[in-house]
Write a structure and sequence with these properties.
Radius of gyration: 24 Å
CATH superfamily: Cytochrome c-like domain
Strand content: under 5%
Helix content: 25-40%
CATH topology: Cytochrome Bc1 Complex, Chain D, domain 2
Bound molecules: heme C
Shape: extended
CATH architecture: Orthogonal Bundle
CATH class: Mainly Alpha
Number of helices: 7
Number of strands: 4
Largest sheet: 2 strands, antiparallel
Structural class: mainly alpha
């Protein structure tokens, strides 16, 4: 039944990173599912904080329907952005309000611009990050809550920060989260840890939106195989019972 689980992968082989914090996500285990509230809050954290630097190029606004947003809400979310379209009849590119079918608007026009704005470091696209790093959402939660003052004797270059879960411990991203930076409407505590958990939940969904279907299919296959094994066993007994009589 191992294939039903989100396979635990080895954490990035750094050797010098701390053991990841023990945090539980509702989507873990063979019956785990995404929590719509956590997904919506996580999207809010991405939108208000991370999207200033990180693109999610594989997502379109209409994908948010998966998380329980209505068509009207999605239209309103998209309408906050201006995207480049064209060329028009005169061969010119033009700006227009984003539609649900548009991809998430990227913060920078290209990688060079992104690096230039971030001290030479590239803020990775976050669409698939939860699958691209060992321990996925657990690593992301750790990274976002793992900033500390560097140990004595360690000097950091300008723009570098100390993070106990980053490979090599030096990261060019300043701690993006702190308490009360995003307002939640459902009464969930607005702490750094809660934001980290929710945005990791959201990033897992972005990397594997069909996880629940995959698990349901896996369970059906196992149930089928069990029932089938039972039938075959009964058939075998019947056949041998008849043969033994002769
Ligand atoms: C001010 C810009 C900025 C913001 C805001 C920001 N990041 Fe980053 N992020 C960066 C940069 C730059 C890097 C590259 C760091 C490096 O290569 O050392 C990075 C790297 C990362 C990485 C990759 C770490 C690794 O293992 O290589 C992840 C994951 C990440 N950011 C997640 C987030 C999330 C989630 C948020 C929102 C809560 C966020 N970032 C907000 C600039 C930003």
């Amino acid at each position: 039944m191992v294939f039903l689980f989100v396979a635990p992968q080895a954490h990035a082989a750094g050797g010098n990173t701390a053991e990841l914090p023990d945090v539980h996500f509702s989507f873990e285990g063979p019956f785990g599912t995404y929590d719509r509230g956590a997904l919506q809050r996580g999207f809010q954290v991405y939108k208000n904080v991370c999207s200033a630097c990180h693109a999610m190029k594989y997502l379109s606004y209409r994908n948010l329907a998966d998380m329980g947003y209505s068509e009207g809400q999605i239209k309103a979310i998209a309408a906050d952005y201006e995207v480049t379209d064209g060329p028009n009849e005169e061969g010119e590119m033009f700006e227009r309000t984003a539609r649900p079918s548009d991809k998430f608007k990227a913060p920078y026009a290209n990688d060079a611009q992104a690096r230039y704005a971030n001290n030479g470091a590239l803020p990775v696209d976050l669409s698939l990050i939860a699958k691209a790093r060992g321990e996925g959402p657990h690593y992301l939660y750790g990274l976002l809550t793992g900033y500390e003052a560097p140990p004595e004797g360690v000097t950091l270059a300008i723009g570098q920060h100390w993070n106990k879960y980053m490979e090599g411990n030096k990261i060019a991203m300043a701690a993006p989260l702190s308490d009360d930076v995003v307002a939640y409407e459902d009464g969930t505590p607005t702490t750094k840890e809660q934001y980290a958990k929710d945005v990791s939940h959201f990033l897992m969904w972005a990397a594997e939106p069909k996880m629940e279907v995959r698990k349901r299919t896996g369970i059906k296959v196992v149930l089928f195989l069990l029932a089938f094994a039972g039938i075959m066993y009964a058939v075998k007994k019947k056949i041998w019972a008849d043969l033994k009589k002769k």
